Amino acid sequence: MSKKVKVGIIGLGFMGTTHLDIYKANDKAEVVAIADVNPDKLAGDISSVFANIGGGDNSISLDLSAMALYEDGMDLINDTNIDLVDICLPTHLHRKYAVAALEAGKHLMLEKPMGRTSEDAKAIADAAAKSDKCFTVGMCVRAWPEYRYVYEQLKSGSYGEVKNAFFKRFSPTMEGKSWNDWFSKEEFSGGALLDLHLHDIDQIVSLFGRPTAVTSNVSKAVRSDSAVDHVFTFYDFEDSKMVVSEGGWSATDNSPFEMSFQLVCEKATVIFSPAGLKEYYEDGTVEEVDLSGCPGPTGWHVELDNLLDAIQKGIPADKYLTPAEALDGICIAEAEQKSIDNNGEKIIIEYKEMR
Ligand SMILES: NC(=O)c1ccc[n+]([C@@H]2O[C@H](COP(=O)([O-])OP(=O)(O)OC[C@H]3O[C@@H](n4cnc5c(N)ncnc54)[C@H](O)[C@@H]3O)[C@@H](O)[C@H]2O)c1
């Protein structure tokens, strides 16, 4: 059996604890270090961690005694025992730690968004291009079973050409549910537009390639003063397909989280909703898709397993996502923000190319 990948996680919040759980259950990995500015977290107290979907039990105390513990993430990056640095920090910190990890010669798992701005994301992509190590960004929906299944069906041609598509990501408010409430602060998170809705932007890139322009509008600041917390966007493509998405965390705290989509294609209509994934074919057949044989159970498990596998085999970790695609998503989000700032004007997307 290949040597276990030695992992160090920076940021033990919702995603850091989620990743820790997943690594513990994966025999390709061994988590050997944790860094967090909060000493309570390093003492194993994760009671302040909030989860929106799939979260584990946060009332338990973690036993981290076998791991190296750091308050400064740079010390973890410089720990020579670590092969893979996994960055689960608030978004405005991604560039500083991601570039340092790549320059230190580590493999890197970076939570999404790749950067707070396209400039940050490009600096990270450029550092990744200079590195010979494995790198991926946590655009986990690409590896989420329902989304990956539909991606594969579309690419195989079994649905025919897509005529129109709608994607939705709907979350209760995130106010007060993160370290220093960073999700509510636009300069740290980019609001729901960059944080939550980015997953559907990325799906659109994954399924259809680069849109040329966006037209966005917003249900203005329902729960926070400044950040975009609920956005509606039309995407233009070179062909005539119509693509629309909605994403936001403006809903009341007791609302259910929902991720869903519908694709109207030549040969079938495909709907993923809280009722499951269903295909409605032209000939009248309705298929309830059984995903039990697909990699899972979540996209988080699949993306991390793919990264560990790539590290062990010495191959690129780009099965689900390339750094260039992760950068494209941020450029599209910025065009959507510009459209909102210009009262719904259509904005031609300015893509940044990697070095
Ligand atoms: N892929 C997904 O589905 C998904 C879901 C949620 C969040 N995320 C992303 O994961 C990242 C982290 O989000 P979260 O929900 O875990 O946030 P969080 O607030 O729950 O956790 C952040 C952690 O970072 C620590 N921290 C803050 N500054 C630090 C520093 N300078 N050095 C070391 N530790 C520091 C905090 O103490 C906290 O433990 C974000 O980029 C977010 O967008 C991804």
Task: Give the tally of structural domains.
Answer: 2
- Specify the number of helices: 11
Known CATH architecture of the largest domain: 2-Layer Sandwich
Q: Tell me the number of strands.
A: 15
Q: Summarize model confidence as the mean pLDDT.
A: 94
In the CATH scheme, what's the topology name of the largest domain?
A: Dihydrodipicolinate Reductase, domain 2
Describe the structure in your own words:
The structure is a single chain. The protein has helices spanning 14-24, 39-42, 73-77, 94-103, 118-130, 145-156, 186-189, 191-195, 198-208, 299-313, 323-341, and strands at residues 5-10, 29-35, 68-70, 84-87, 107-110, 135-137, 162-172, 213-218, 230-236, 242-251, 258-265, 268-273, 276-281, 286-288, 347-348. With 355 residues, it is α/β, with parallel strands linked by helices. It folds into 2 domains: 5-139 and 299-321, 3-Layer(aba) Sandwich (Rossmann fold); 142-294 and 329-348, 2-Layer Sandwich (Dihydrodipicolinate Reductase, domain 2), CATH 3.30.360. The strands form 2 sheets. Strands 14-13-12-11-7-10-9-8-15 form a 9-stranded mixed sheet. The longest helix is centred in the last third of the chain and has 19 residues, at 323-341. It starts with a strand and ends in a 7-residue tail after the last strand. The site of nicotinamide-adenine-dinucleotide (NAD) has 27 residues, from helix 1.
